Amino acid sequence: MKQLLTILLTFSIFVAFSQNFEHNELYSNGKVKIEYSGKKDAPDGIVKMYYPTGELQGELWYKKGKQNGISKIYYQTGKIQKEMTYKNGVQIDTMKIYFETAVLQELSMIVNGAKNGVYKLYYKTGQLQIDGFAKDNQLNGSCIHYNEDGKKSKEGEYKMGQPTGIWKEYNKIGVTQKNYGQ
Questions:
Q1: Domains (ranges, CATH) in the chain?
Q2: Is the terminal CB of the chain with fewer CB neighbours within 10 Å at N or C?
């Protein structure tokens, strides 16, 4: 009985880690463009995409034809470009975008497939550039902008991507205010 359980467990692990892809598309140079398992129009499991030169471009998880789970997109160098999470084909949770140097470029919360919530944008140096909130993919609510040296450059409110109200602008002389109306 123990041997049977050991054999079944070993077989299950082997099957789980050795996925055979049932579908693939090729580039004109013969290299794989995309490969996946499942029905022709409904992938189930991991979908792998490749650059024409053969490097991995992306790994997207699907369940019954809809994206589900963490998806990753890569630069041709192999470094991560973008990480996002899907549930039933809709992007959710945190999205991270990276510069090709692997430094975080953008961090945003995704609700119902759009940027809704915390939004942070970074310079290539890793220094925070914008710290704010988004609604329906646009800056919305309080927001602070920073210079590349980390000092505040301005702060105020956005309403659907447009500055509104009184903004503070920081410079070497001091603080000035600018009114964007209501």
A1: 20-179 (3.90.930.1)
A2: N
